[in-house]
Input
Amino acid sequence: MRDGKHLVWILDDEWNEHQLEMKMYQQYKIEVKVTRSEKLAEDLPVYAAVADAVVAQVGFQCRGEIIEKLDSCKVISIPGVGFNHVDVEAATKKGIAVSHVPDYCAEEVSDHTVALILAVTRRLAAYSRKVRAGKWDPLDTLPIHRFSTRTVGLIGFGRIARMVADKLKPFGVQILAHDEYISEESIRNQGAIPVSLDELLEQSNIISLHVPLTPETHNLINYERLKKLPKGAFVINTCRGGVLNENDLQRAIEEGHIAGAGLDVLEQEPPASDYSLLTMEECLITPHSSYFSEESITELRTRTTQAAIDGVLGNDLPYALNLKKIKI
Output
């Protein structure tokens, strides 16, 4: 508390206004402080010790040096699915719950994934560039295969991957799935074929990545595994940069083994201006935008704010990553 009132401290370099959040907090007479990264050193000693909740925007590093100073905080609320920017272990030791919003954009990300699959396999970006350059030739981006003859391998079979599978079924493609944490029966019930990772790589003309970024999944798809794919395969990544080794992807494309890639996430975001994949005709890159729609952002902001409010009030947090119960 600060001056007898609850305080939510928002660490945010992304959103320029917080009107929706402010209206929700005002209903509970909760005060709000927004801090940008350039002001963190100035604001940390003032607000860290008195904040009842912290909202940690994805990309704003909320590490141990911040968390250890959160003496009044009950919850760190993350406006997003990913949580590798928050030291969950340090928060747990401090008795602070960490909550995220795991499913707000599942519809958008699955749509974006399917869109990337169709765009790269139909080579839409290459066609568009050539037409803009004055070249009208439908045969200069070959080969293109009938989509219904393709096999799509989903690495990870959580909520988003299952939606991707549902959206791909009407196209008639064969769908393979690998997930060590999902039963084979569940995968089959979703209309996909459960396989080992090696089997998926060896049989898939298109692979789509749907795993969180962890030490175990960092560089999961490297040169060795890319070479296991059939020649002319495509790679789609809408989960997290770092799961795919981008240098190895470039090498496999230059060697002619991989036909192309659709990437919404990169290990470094935004990439450097001389980042080599940006200039490769085989790659279609979008700016980590698969989560976005007007509806998804409204839902994200509302649910993130509600989690912070619930933490302040001591309510249960259904999407806590560590502590489900708040200590009052």
Q: What stands out?
A: The two ends are 13 Å apart (CA to CA). The chain has a mean pLDDT of 95. The chain has two domains: 7-104+294-313, 106-285.
